[in-house]
Structure formats: C-alpha cells, structure tokens
Design goal:
- The chain is α+β, with helices and mostly antiparallel strands.
- The protein has 3 helices and 5 strands, in the order H-E-H-E-E-H-E-E.
- The strands form 2 sheets. The protein has a 3-stranded antiparallel beta sheet, covered by helices on one side. A two-stranded parallel sheet has the order 1-5.
- It is elongated and about 45 Å long.
- The N terminus and C terminus are likely disordered.
Amino acid sequence: ETNKTSLDPKTLLKDYGKYIARKIGKLRKYPFSARRKGIQGRVIIELTILKTGELENLKVIASPNNILTKSSIAAIQQAAPFPKFPKEINQESIKFKMPFTSATCSNFRIG
C-alpha cells in the first residue's frame, strides 16, 4: 500500500524546504572579518526558486551588516541550482525565507 502522506503536496513542500535549508547550511560561513570585529546578528533572505530548481531571485529582508549579508548570499548562490520540484508540487515557483544567525555561529561555518 502506498504511503499517501509522502505524496501530500504540503508535506513534499515542507520536505523540499528542509532539503534546501540543509544544502545551503552546509555552505554557510561566518566570515573571519565579522568574527574578528565581533559582528553578530541575523540575516533574513527571501529566495525564489523556480520549479526547475533554478534560483530566480534573492531579496534581503533584514541584515545587521553587509559582511554577513554577502556571506549569506554567497552560500545560497553556491548551493544553487536546486533539485526540480516533485511533480506533486504544482507551482511555478516557491518563496522561502532563510534566516542566517551568527551570534552563536550555529548556522555558520567559520571561514
């Protein structure tokens, strides 16, 4: 018997978002210059991904510092392109808001 929840578009969308966050998370770096200067904070970026997996747009929603912003954008751009949407997700594009927190360095690799 097929597990219907695995094909539920809302579940697939949530799982896709988690995958994107993990893929980007592996590439996040807490810039040495920001660490040296004690710059901390939270960058929030909205990204739009097309159903083909192509990164269509990035928009900075909030950022305490340009160094952190550039590092966050670089991680997203390096992670792209992303996988195509599962066929059950019947949308042309999806917008995600990605938080990048540097205060504890938990979301950034030191680099």
